[in-house]
Amino acid sequence: MANRLTQIATRTGDDGSTGLGDGSRVPKDHLRIHAMGEVDELNSHLGVLLCEPLPDEVRELLVTIQHELFNLGGELSIPGYELLKADAVLRLDEALAEYNARLPRLQEFILPGGSRSAALAHVARTVARRAERAVVTLGAHETVRPEPRQYLNRLSDLLFVLARVLNRANLDGLGGDDVYWHSERLQRG
């Protein structure tokens, strides 16, 4: 891997460029930098979620995901480098199956809300989708392995499921169930 940061205020980006992990420089609005920024924002949202009361197993899973997202960002920062492993996608698939099996089937669409932790998981879910779109866009212009895209796709699904889990955990006393969408059209029918 390339050099680690030893200082933050380098002033090398004052010209509107930034360095990649391989030492090359690109404009700060480059598609690769955009994708890296979306992944970084997602990881930051998970950091906020981790400040909430959470079931221990969910906390442990989210911490692992943060490390994997850092690997994903590292991979994006070095064109052609592989850092996020395929077993990371498999771990998300397994977590999805495990948590989905504990939940009742959805009968209606649900709204982002309920407990604060569930609402924060929904925010992270939407940022995961945005990060996925940024990686797809980058992949249309440069070579990107499928694992980063697959990981973000699975992660957004998992965050939806975890929001439902967190509402049922009700650790802040404000949740208890999903918040269901009620359409005027459904009420008339």
Structure keywords:
189 residues, mainly alpha, Hypothetical Protein Ta1238, Chain: A, CblAdoTrfase-like
Roughly how many Å is the radius of gyration? 19 Å
Instruction: Indicate the CATH topology.
Output: Hypothetical Protein Ta1238, Chain: A
Name the structural class. Answer: mainly alpha
Low-confidence stretches: none
Main beta sheet, described? 2 strands, antiparallel
Subunit structure: Homotrimer.
Enzyme class: transferase
Domain Cobalamin adenosyltransferase-like: 8-165
Catalytic activity: 2 cob(II)alamin + AH2 + 2 ATP = 2 adenosylcob(III)alamin + 2 triphosphate + A + 2 H(+)
Explain what you see.
- With 189 residues, the protein is mainly alpha-helical.
- The protein contains 6 helices and 4 strands.
- A hairpin with a 5-residue loop joins β1 and β2.
- The longest helix has 26 residues.
Q: What's the arrangement of secondary structure elements?
A:
Layout: E1 17-19, E2 25-27, H1 31-49, H2 56-77, H3 86-102, E3 110-111, H4 116-141, H5 146-169, E4 179-180, H6 184-188
Antiparallel strand pairs: 1-2, 3-4
Helix pairs in contact: 1-2, 1-4, 3-5, 4-5
